[in-house]
Specification:
Radius of gyration: 11 Å
Number of domains: 1
Helix content: under 10%
Shape: globular
Order of helices and strands: EE
Number of helices: 0
Number of strands: 2
Strand content: 15-25%
């Protein structure tokens, strides 16, 4: 499987990695409460108003 750089999603507190046997998806958990955020954003995400770095 080729590597896809997720951009900000790779280090965001609100990102949940969803893996299947053939694919990897980056789920934005903010999408559950705020319609401005897509459930599965197009990668790489370079800017995001909801980004919070994982501590």
């Amino acid at each position: 499987m080729p590597f896809m750089n997720p951009g900000l999603c790779g280090t965001c507190h609100h990102c949940q990695l969803v893996q299947t046997t053939r694919s990897v998806f980056y789920l934005c958990r903010r999408s559950k409460t705020d319609p401005r955020f897509p459930r599965y954003p197009a990668l790489p995400v370079l800017t995001c108003i909801g980004y919070q770095k994982v501590l």
